[in-house]
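Hey,

Quick one before I head out. I ran the complex with 5-O-phosphono-beta-D-ribofuranosylamine overnight. Inputs first:
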Amino acid sequence: MTSMPAVKLGVLISGEGTNLQAIIEAIDRNELAAEIRVVISNKIAARGLERARRRAIPAEFIDHRSFPSREDFDRALVDSLRAHQVELVICAGFMRLLSPVMIDAFRNRIMNIHPALCPAFPGVNAQRQALDYGVRFSGCTVFFVTEGIDDGPVIVQAVVPVEQDDDEVALAARIHAEEHRIYTQAIRLYQEGRLEVRGRRVHIRGASPEETATATIDRSPS
Ligand code: GRF
């Protein structure tokens, strides 16, 4: 832990929220100096909303369908995030493309996680895409959100092996375990003031090899 102030997070979700849960638990264990100021979901039934409420974290449902345009929905997101004094936005299974309204309001302050080694397999069903392609390794990527799909500057990646008899569920589970680890790591690097975006590349001040890329060879059955 550093003496830098805790970073104020706003977490955007649409579903299960296991990455949100991993962040909550990292904060509990004092591995991350952060405060989750608000969790926002565009789906009322998102399990992540329940996870937040259980921890007395403000949890809001903002229905994208009740806005005439993507930009109007994003303005509502910006308003809520600002009202909660959020510094860093964490997309964690948030199934909406962000417009320039959000991206400009939080330039280089929005992170997302993708269950593949970017730029491979962008968009939905990344694990299915990896299996169909027949790669031996996949993984996950934390990046800063830009206007494109899963193509912003890479912060941290982790490599995960693809086993012969993997199906989507088995591969997704192995990747998920790494997501939970590297998302916390990326947020910590931000909180420590060690991330600097230089064009497409993210420079990590004083980085150890583990902080720029990590490989896991997990042979345990999933
Ligand atoms: C993760 O696989 C993440 O990579 C993708 O959406 C999924 C969210 O999972 N962007 P969860 O809701 O955090 O469990």
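The first helix runs from residue 18 to 28.

Talk tomorrow,
K.
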